[in-house]
Amino acid sequence: MSGYRIAIVGATGLVGQTLLQVLEDTGVPVATLVALAREGEGRFVEFGQDRIAVEPLERMDWGRVDVAFFAAGNAVSAQYAPQATQAGVTVIDKSSYWRMDPHVPLVVPEVNGAAIGDSLLIASPNCSTIQLVIALAPIQARFGVKRVVVSTYQAVSGTGRDAVEELEQQTRAQVSGGSVSPEVYPVTIAHNVLPWCDRFGEADYTGEEWKLMRETEKIMGQNLRLSATAVRVPVYVGHAESVYLETEQPWSLEEIREALKTGPSVRIVDDPVHGAVPTPLDAAGQDDVLVGRIRADLHESRGLHLFVVADNLRRGAASNAVDIMRFIGTRRNQDIPAR
Ligand SMILES: NC(=O)c1ccc[n+]([C@@H]2O[C@H](COP(=O)([O-])OP(=O)(O)OC[C@H]3O[C@@H](n4cnc5c(N)ncnc54)[C@H](OP(=O)(O)O)[C@@H]3O)[C@@H](O)[C@H]2O)c1
């Protein structure tokens, strides 16, 4: 059979499962699919009509594949991505381990696909970063962006399957009058809003906030003077972002809409009077970045407000990774690897 020979590291996790779904949805030809996790014994994943046995990562022979998606956390990417690239495998990494390495391209294909160059190791950005740069890029291209302030409303699936389970359990316990004991998050997530994601770091910003600020600047290639506040909300799928930005050039709201329409993956959902606003429930299960609440600031003549929502597991992770693989295939004019 001809097609891509693919490994998914972390195939049993939320991103791994979504990768399987996106590969199936996009219909890219797949000749080999190796599903890897901590342990294999008796575990299977579904891919279309096929049931694929899960294999332990530590026994992987990298000669079996051409492309490996890594979705198993930083420690796994640090240890195994170099082994895979040394065997000639193209690694598309969803962890944050390699993202800020100056030798590793950090890529959202519709924004900076050319950055891939000849690298065999390509980092895919944080989920909040991907939807932000997709929304900012068309405005940046036409009017220049000189300042961004973003507050996120991030779904629990961004933390992985244990967090989804925790929200389910806590919600059930709370509605039935039971008690909750937080484990994944430091405090109760059900019916709550946590004004931080990840650990606190430099200058009292969290790790998630630093990722959003540094990754956006690495991708968009200029100092956007971005400030971020990352917030966790009790939503299962779909990250939302309230974005304020200031541009170099003047614009009308009509021109902003026209610019946004040119952005691949951007869909304007902005008719609040008739109920058309971007929400996580609308974003979940599809690949567009929904942009709405488009309005001018009342005090700053080049100040613009947007509300940006996307499925963190698809657009924010799996679909971006699969798009990187397809971008490389198209660019090398070999959508199907030669072997
Ligand atoms: N969730 C998101 O929205 C999102 C977005 C962007 C990036 N990411 C990143 O993607 C990665 C995966 O996230 P996730 O949400 O899918 O996590 P998850 O649901 O917790 O799944 C983790 C996966 O990694 C595997 N794994 C963990 N340790 C391993 C090891 N030592 N060897 C082999 N496999 C191992 C697990 O296998 P077992 O089943 O055997 O434990 C499981 O398949 C993380 O780096 C995360 O930061 C996530």
From TrEMBL:
It holds the Pfam family Semialdhyde_dh. The active site is at C127 (acyl-thioester intermediate), H239 (proton acceptor). The keyword Transmembrane helix does not apply. The lineage of its organism: Bacteria, Bacillati, Bacillota, Clostridia, Eubacteriales. GO terms for molecular function: aspartate-semialdehyde dehydrogenase activity; NAD binding; NADP binding; protein dimerization activity. This is Aspartate-semialdehyde dehydrogenase. Gene3D superfamilies: Dihydrodipicolinate Reductase, domain 2, NAD(P)-binding Rossmann-like Domain. NCBIfam families: asd_B, PRK14874.1.
